[in-house]
Design a protein that fits this description.
The chain has about 475 residues and is α+β, with helices and mostly antiparallel strands. A 7-stranded mixed beta sheet has the order 18-19-17-16-22-23-24, with helices on both faces. α12 packs across α16. It starts with a strand and ends with a helix.
């Protein structure tokens, strides 16, 4: 009987589980359970206990929890989970797309300097980073900050409930803003800042890529239907999980089209971008994962389609219209208070043209970010196709727009749920003491539909860049005070 491993993706909206044949990579079962996200005016929160309940429900839906031989969890990055002495949440978790910490991120940069921060932790912290959220909590809910006896990321929280061990991995830790990619340890100088004041002993131990987090406890087994004693991988952040799931080599570019958009590539060079466009994350293999993220991607374009009363693919050439659908503020560029901006409207502009312009604005922002990633990674493999993943990669218009704006071939992998697949790759690697890259190669996770490039629409990309620069340079459009 084949050994089975489970990979878990605890994302913003839902927890998904894949049960995978360890020998072949064949998905034999899957399950999903949703989460509640609440908050307005920049707040985005979820009770962490919902993630545990969702994990229980998703595992039960697979019908195979009792046959799983190893498990690993990849989770949404940056989220702030604050626990009491019993391991119970003191308040709802602040999610990665909670932008209330924007003033605290700006203060960190002002105090330490963008160059120092980028060199120290690999990134210039923005509102989404965990350190910004903790500084917001310290300033706005000091009683909760003072009462904290443990501070975790979403995947840490679930891994600890599985194993009883307070651990994390270098990939997810690199997105906090308080773990140094330079020396592989917590940045105690940042933790000691007046606006932060976080004791290192409240943070989890950071594991190496090949180190097990422990084994499933009797209590966790009873709740989840797993067998006690099976190994648990160190886990990682969702983007690092997707890279594992794709078996990425150095220099291969990925664009992920989801609720948010991400662009990333594996690099052997440690990135440190003081501009804040590129986050200099570590990956889950011992290398690095320079990444840029946009807040507005498929959800924003779907919102435009709904406002216009159009089907998603009911589009026409945009002609003179340029649209930046930054409905939730934006992270790349770092304009958390901005909103949607349209330029070039005429009497004869159609709804279909406006929808196409929204697609182009969202995709163009990601391609600009991909260029910055290449600069930080020492170059990308220009002969290799862009790997296009996420829900948008199944959409005809999304794929066409990326091909046209980039002028590059595109590969749409057959594998779905790549974050959970990456967690499964890690679980198999821990279970068999094998390199995760070798597991992904054996499973052939990066095969798919290869599309030849279209002629690059250089003029359209130039107009998207110009409008983005105009918004960034205008206090009124950027949402900041004049």
């Amino acid at each position: 009987m084949s050994r089975l491993v489970a990979g878990v993706d605890c994302s913003t909206q839902a927890t998904k589980v894949l049960v995978v044949d360890e020998a072949t990579g064949r998905v034999v079962a899957s399950g999903r359970a949703g989460h509640t996200v609440s908050g307005t005016a920049g707040a985005r929160e979820t009770d962490p206990r919902e993630w545990w309940s969702a994990l229980e429900g998703a595992l039960a839906e697979t019908g195979m929890a009792g046959r799983v031989d190893a498990i690993s969890i990849a989770g949404q990055q940056h989220g702030l989970v604050v626990l009491d002495e019993r391991g119970e949440p003191l308040r709802p978790a602040m999610l990665w797309n909670d932008t209330r910490g924007a003033p605290q991120a700006a203060e960190l940069v002002e105090v330490l300097g963008a160059d120092v921060l980028a060199e120290r932790v690999g990134s210039r912290p923005v509102a989404s980073f965990t350190v910004s959220k903790w500084a917001w909590l310290r300033a706005n809910e000091p009683s909760a900050a003072d009462a904290a006896r443990a501070v975790r990321l979403p995947h840490d929280y679930l891994t600890e409930r599985l194993t009883g061990e307070a651990v994390t991995d270098r990939g997810d830790a690199s997105g906090t803003g308080w773990w140094s990619t330079a020396d592989g340890s917590y940045a105690t100088d940042i933790l000691a800042l007046r606006s932060v004041r976080l004791a290192p002993e409240l943070l989890p131990r950071v594991l190496g890529p090949a180190v097990s987090a422990g084994t499933v406890t009797q209590d966790a087994a009873r709740h989840l239907g797993l067998r006690a004693g099976i190994p648990v991988g160190p886990g990682t952040g969702d983007n690092m999980g997707a890279a594992l799931g794709l078996g990425l080599g150095v220099g291969q570019a990925v664009v992920s089209l989801g609720t948010s958009g991400t662009a990333f590539a594996v690099s052997g060079t440690r990135p440190a971008d003081p501009s804040g466009v590129v986050a200099g994350f570590a990956d889950a293999t011992g290398r690095f994962l320079p990444l840029a993220c946009t807040l507005n991607c498929t959800l924003a374009v779907d919102r435009v389609a709904a406002l216009l009363g159009l089907d998603r693919d009911d589009v026409a050439p945009s002609d003179g219209v340029v649209f930046l659908p930054w409905f939730d503020g934006e992270r790349t560029p770092n304009l958390p208070l901005s909103s949607g901006t349209v330029n070039g409207l005429r009497h004869d502009t159609t709804r279909q043209q406006l929808l196409m312009a929204a697609y182009e604005g969202a995709a163009g922002s990601l391609l600009v970010a991909l260029e910055a990633i290449g600069a930080q990674a020492g170059g990308l493999d220009q002969d290799a196709p862009i790997m296009l993943v996420g829900g948008g990669a199944r959409g005809r218009t999304w794929v066409e727009v990326v091909r046209r704006l980039s002028g590059r071939p595109v590969l749409v992998p057959d594998a779905e749920e790549l974050v959970a697949m990456g967690a499964a790759v890690q679980a198999a690697a821990i279970d068999t003491a094998t390199d995760p890259g070798a597991v992904a190669d054996r499973w052939r996770t990066n095969t798919g539909r290869l599309l030849e490039p279209l002629e690059a629409d250089v003029a359209r990309m130039a107009r998207i860049r110009d409008l983005a620069a105009t918004v960034a340079g205008s206090p009124a459009l950027a949402g900041s005070e004049a």
